[in-house]
Write a structure and sequence with these properties.
Strand order of the largest sheet: 6-9-10-3-11-12
Helix content: 55-70%
Structural class: alpha/beta
Distance between the termini: 68 Å
Low-confidence stretches: none
CATH architecture of the largest domain: Up-down Bundle
Number of helices: 21
Length: 579
């Protein structure tokens, strides 16, 4: 929790004034037993004065009203500070997560990150509010009650100190054993989030294979595991209240017992016993608050640790701070790979090994190979989603590691394997790469992507709604909209990562023809499994087990590259191959 204190820097006033209001309330609360003792000893036993009793009663009401007002002020400041800090933590987490590279996102996992930015942050936020309200008040009440008890009767405070020590040891015992279990609880919440996400996103597949029962059993097993762990920590935490009550009530019995003896001996007054019992009750209530606060802080500590883990995760792909000047006609190739190797984990086999090739401006490049050959990995190195393990990737003669991310990636229009659309309108989705794109430019991009035909038939056209993930469109429609989104910005380099997989052959051919006609001067990289899609490309790269098996045009590769020939013959007839 201490590492997250920076998010409270804008709420110093609230963090200071809130606890002070609670301290003022605690002081007023500590005065009440003394007023009660005076009512009994002076107003009733000595003076028998009803007016004095009423005046002291009025003073008690005044103390209660002032304490209530102070508590309300503290509640306001605590809410303001905790809600503000929670907002800042979420914002900082979101920004930091977006700064991480693909490698860190793969390692942390989407379900875990969602849990940390929601559930964990909520726990920390609650922890901040309760600490402002109770962290100073409860210990002050305990210490203050001990001091006030000492002022009444010093020998009797031995009972107070013994009770406080026993309760303190109980708190330490529970807290020291609860923190690791609460951390495990949060990890199990991550697992439930993962399973829930898989089931909700893959619901159609689950129904298609009639796996509802087995998936229900997986969810049940995960929730039962969470339940067992939660019950375990709850049983441990449940020790706090009964132990605290038992110790405190035994202490009250001892106070009344030895207090009665002292009253009989004339060493104490009846009101003093009532005051001591009140102070012990206050200690009891304060300790119960401390017990609950310990449980809350234990949860908060576990959640804060997980949040700090995200903040402490540094992106493996570091960004260059300043823009660089690049001469567009410097004679360098648009894209160049020089002896590039890559490994996701920096151990074991390499995903890409010793890849070298050049792509000139305006070329159409096809990338083909078997499943797992490294096609998408190679594409992800160009906009620097990952950093190469060895070698160098150059864009216009400049190492991609020397570009700031914005300056590098604004050159690209990228259509990933998974077609992702965002909730909003079609027009809003089309303006991702170029925010000021006109309707004419959007329509031209849709026409190039073969998407304008179905978009124009929608009742609201470009203003038609796109549901979350584009679920109100078919797979082929989503792919074409994603291609249109990339084309609208007229990027220097267009990357199509297996983006024709959901298209029929006629639409595929029409789209390729439109790309040739409408992307003059644009470098196009097409990752595909279909030979027909890239047969007319200026350059074809053939990958096999992470190595470049061949590079050239279709006719050349068919004669010289066995891997490419096998792929072609598995998909095309002899006549189609030679066409």
């Amino acid at each position: 929790m201490w590492k997250l204190r920076r998010f409270l820097t804008d709420y110093k006033k609230e963090v200071i004034i809130g606890p002070l209001c609670k301290l003022f309330e605690a002081i007023l609360e500590l005065l009440v037993p003394l007023v009660m003792a005076n009512i009994i000893d002076v107003g009733i036993n000595e003076l028998h004065d009803a007016g004095y009793v009423l005046r002291m009663g009025g003073l008690m009401v005044l103390l209660a009203a002032m304490g209530l007002g102070s508590a309300l002020f503290c509640q306001y400041f605590a809410s303001k500070a905790s809600q503000g800090a929670g907002t800042k933590i979420r914002s900082a987490l979101f920004s930091h997560i977006n700064a991480l590279s693909y490698a860190e996102l793969d390692r942390l996992g989407t379900p875990s990150l969602i849990t940390r930015i929601t559930n964990d942050t909520n726990q920390v936020q609650l922890n901040i509010a309760m600490c402002i309200r109770l962290l100073t008040r409860a210990p002050f009440i305990v210490v203050g009650s001990l001091v006030m008890a000492m002022s009444i009767n010093l020998p009797m405070t031995v009972i107070f100190f013994a009770a406080a020590l026993l309760i303190g040891l109980t708190l330490w015992f529970v807290m020291s054993r609860s923190v690791p279990i609460y951390t495990a609880v949060q990890r199990k919440l991550d697992k439930i989030g993962l399973l829930s996400r898989e089931n909700l996103s893959g619901n159609r597949v689950i129904r298609a294979f009639s796996k509802q029962q087995s998936e229900k059993e997986r969810i049940d097993a995960a929730t039962e595991d969470l339940t067992r762990t939660s019950i375990r920590v709850s049983r441990l935490s449940a020790l706090l209240s009964p132990v605290t009550y038992a110790v405190t009530n035994i202490a009250i019995i001892a106070i009344i017992w030895f207090g009665a003896v002292n009253v009989n001996l004339g060493n104490m007054k009846t009101g003093d016993i009532v005051a001591l019992v009140s102070y012990m009750t206050q200690i009891l209530l304060a300790m119960i608050v401390v017990a609950n606060l310990v449980i809350l802080m234990t949860k908060g500590s576990a959640c804060a640790k997980r949040i700090n883990e995200v903040f402490e995760t540094q992106p493996s792909v570091a960004e260059k701070a300043d823009n660089i000047s690049v001469k567009e006609n410097n004679g360098a190739s648009q894209i160049e790979f020089k002896n590039v190797s890559f490994n996701y984990t920096n151990n074991g086999d390499e995903e890409l090994s010793d890849i070298s090739f050049t792509v000139e401006k305006g070329q159409t490049v096809g990338i083909i190979g078997g499943t797992g050959s490294g096609k998408s990995t190679l594409i992800n190195l160009i906009p620097r989603f990952y950093d190469v393990t060895r070698g160098v990737v150059l864009i216009n003669g400049v190492d991609v590691r020397d570009y700031p991310f914005h300056q590098l990636r604004q050159r690209f229009g990228i259509v990933p394997q998974q077609s992702v659309l965002f909730s909003g309108t079609i027009r809003e989705n089309m303006r991702w790469l170029k925010p000021d794109a006109t309707d004419e430019e959007i329509i031209k991009g849709l026409q190039t992507a073969q998407a304008y035909e179905f978009v124009s038939k929608l009742p609201k056209g470009l203003d038609s709604r796109v549901e979350q993930g584009g679920r109100n469109f078919s797979g082929g429609q989503r792919q074409r909209l994603c291609i249109a989104r990339a084309v609208v910005g007229n990027p220097e380099i267009l990357i199509l990562d297996d983006s024709f997989s959901a298209l029929d052959f006629a639409t595929d051919a029409a789209l390729r023809q439109a790309l040739r006609e409408n992307t003059h001067g644009m470098t196009v990289l097409i990752v595909t499994q279909r030979c027909s899609t890239i047969k007319n490309a200026d350059l074809i790269l053939v990958l096999s087990d992470g190595r470049l098996a061949g590079a050239g045009r279709h006719e050349e590769l068919f004669d010289t590259c066995e891997t490419y020939r096998d792929i072609c013959l598995s998909q095309l007839s002899d006549a189609e191959v030679k066409k």
